[in-house]
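Take a look at the protein record below and flag anything odd:
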Amino acid sequence: MCTPCCITQLACCCGSAACSCCCNCCPKIKQSTGTRVMYALYFLLVTIICVIMMSPTVEQELRDKIPFYSELCQKMNAGENCKTLVGYSAVYKVCFGMSCFFFLFSIFTIRINNSTGWRAAVHNGFWLLKFIALVACCAGGFFLPDEETFLEVWRYVGATGGFIFLLIQLMLLVEFAHRWNTNWSSGVRYNRLWYAALALVTLILFSIAVAAVGLMGWYYTDPEACLLNKIFLGINGSLCLIVSLLAISPCIQKLQPTSGLLQPGVISVYVMYLTFSAFSSKPKEMVERDGVNKTVCVFPLNSGSESDKKIVTAVGTVILFGCVLYSCLTSTTRRSSAALRVCRNTEPETERARCCFCFGDDTDDYDEEKTGSGQNVVYDEREATIYSYAYFHFVFFLGSLYVMMTVTNWFHYDNHKIEKLLDGSWSVFWIKMASCWVCLFLYMWTLVAPMVCPKRFEA
């Protein structure tokens, strides 16, 4: 049993065979899904390395635990205590290599329509060789000439790509809200329990949003300070109420019968999360009371103690990884790609109500399987690709730039540490606050667009 598994993994690493687990008790996996998961693991690995490079704590642990650390750094020409391998400049260079890797693959996979060609075979296999190429790209960034000019130019390239990725992420959220409502609404005709599920989830979402407004009003406002918090909390809460009323207005219901309160509930919760994240990212404000300077408008878990900082940083990092991977993987499906082009799919869609609808594939039935001692693999792209290979790599290219900017705290990169990921920064505050308004505008546009441009949205 071990020998066939080793042969299979060797064919995956050095050939065009799809990757699979050695355990045959694992459920079967589609080739398109396995390929995207492998690229996501590459992306996650480099991202973790970037986080380590921005962490003085990890650097100190390596220095204490690795014997002959200083001598090893000198032999590698990495400077005293490997200073050239840590800090924001090292993250820029590593992310430059990763973004080059995905950008080159984006160009390489243009106009691939099925998985039978040699370019598709490279995309879906040869994982060991591609890993070596990725390592070479990331290492090559450390040998670029004129480092200061490179860092300055690459910073603005990263900011541009990061903003575009943020826009894609927000458009995906709007598409996710509409798809959720459409999928569950399709089940109402066959089972009234889906209507009860819709009502329950909608109630929970709006309860979370209202509770978030109350908690932020309690913790992030003060009678003597935090004027911006009061203004933006009121604006964002009012905008959420406006889009909720707009979604169920008669003029919208006439053109979009499936429009309901579930979509604005999802949008409202996300906007409240972004608002909370923006308030947490704003530099702390101090007021003098009884002759003592006191920090105000901070959440209890961000009050300044070391344990609270570790919890907040860990949660923020996990959310960052989750959002980036979700955006990279889901933005490349056929349905999401159509949504990102801001036009309706011309093919009629058949919805089957499912609790985990977001994990469903565009097609369901495939006959060809590879069976053996390990996990079965379904080759689902013989006739046509499930997703655009070029667009898939381009989204990961943008995701690389977004991770680079986020880990290095956007434009406040000097002396930044990953432990200060959620500490105060005006640039992060305004980026997240602007994301709230863009998200609300995109959702509002999906509601009024059929009225403004009726011909474009005709079935």
Summary: Strands lie at 29-30, 285-289, 292-296, 369-370, 377-378. The longest strand covers residues 285-289. Confidence is low (pLDDT under 50) at residues 341-348. The longest helix spans residues 147-186.
